[in-house]
């Protein structure tokens, strides 16, 4: 350890209980102040031992700071062998620090017990240390936390003490673990530039983001096919005159060229409002609900950013497996915010509701009293919304999502295969309309090929029986017979395949005219592919047609491709998807460099 004379007081001061009011000019004075703060006499055996320990801790603080600086300066230049050595050395150092803390617990516990002889009470901090060694994130079920000292908790309330949580409505270790995990997954090597805040549902995340971005009288360009709940939130809350009176400008296209035309039209149409101070923002969903079609996200972002407009993207249906918009090489092509409903594929179990907003650090959080890149601390998502609204994600749900994320890629591979096979099966029938970019002849297939990993399709799409004379009663008889192979559930992204009628459920808040603009008819079926056996699904679909439709339209169920051809299709698609995935992984040669 360095001598006290060589230690930087400023580096060590954050470890002091008097970090803001200290008069110390040396580490030795910091040690003396610490003992005095807790009324410990330095001339006693306890005082001498405590002072010696404190000196070592102040030295360790500076050593770890230097270790972090060296890591930042050298990491990019290291080969894989050195990186492995760096990691394992730091991992063991963490165990050593934890061991020191564990060693402290016995005298700590005995002192506490001696203070509570008459009415012994459990003090949980004794039992929390072993959780540091948990192989999975600990589920921290607590509302509040133990204070370190007055000046540290003051910093925590100012947002200047990131490791000292004060209230689980604001931060919780399990919640933070999930936030770190989704940023790593979504942003990859750009993760250091982004933060995430988790919410109790996808809609809570969207509401928080819109509440942070929108001001009274603003104009919002919105892609036409958004989730029905978002439509309702925008139309029935933000757009109401007695609320935020936001003007909604619905964008019907998918390409950057269509967006450029729409943007110019909106700027001209609302020139007076914009001149009077209203701001223009962009909210898009890609892939969109209910058809699963993709928008040209990079192109739209670049056009919007050229006009200094913020872009919010709901990327729930893509998941980071299909699309990683925050990893685009050109920053101007990245959205400013990415939203996910964890409830869907990322968790994948159908057991919890949760959501997240991901954004650049300076837009998500800054300590009080600071500003960065034109954003004041009070305008960040944390202080402006998250801190005061309380729609936080509790630890149990955070753990559920973290557990589900472990199988995300494997589940999405199966869904990609099932989607390709099932949509081609449906499309082989002359009287079934399939609205899915999984089909190469679909008008959205080009954007899907450009943007999604390996050109894989979204597992959500719509289909209709092209029988003009089919009435609602006849259709309902067929639709109801699809259970149990197709789950009649309103959510998506689970392991089982789900089917619903958007006009009557997820998009029922829209008027008939709005539904027609969104391509939703009374008999439109929204299909969310799961991880089921796709051939079992197909067999059940044909049997349902035989039972409900063939008596009215004889032979309708015979209009699909031959069974042997479908078997061949399934094997070919499964082999292609797995070859694409495993072929895209780094080679062993690259991993050993």
UniProtKB/TrEMBL annotation:
Name the needed cofactors: pyridoxal 5'-phosphate
InterPro entries for this protein:
Cys/Met-Metab_PyrdxlP-dep_enz (IPR000277), PyrdxlP-dep_Trfase (IPR015424), PyrdxlP-dep_Trfase_major (IPR015421), PyrdxlP-dep_Trfase_small (IPR015422)
List UniProt keywords, sorted A-Z. Answer: Pyridoxal phosphate
Please give the Gene3D superfamilies that the UniProt record associates with this protein.
Answer: Aspartate Aminotransferase, domain 1, Type I PLP-dependent aspartate aminotransferase-like (Major domain)
List every stretch annotated Disordered.
Answer: 1-25
**Source domain of life:** Bacteria
Q: Which Pfam families match?
A: Cys_Met_Meta_PP (PF01053)
Q: Does the keyword Nucleotide-binding apply?
A: no
Say which family it is in: Belongs to the trans-sulfuration enzymes family.
Q: What is this protein called?
A: Trans-sulfuration enzyme family protein
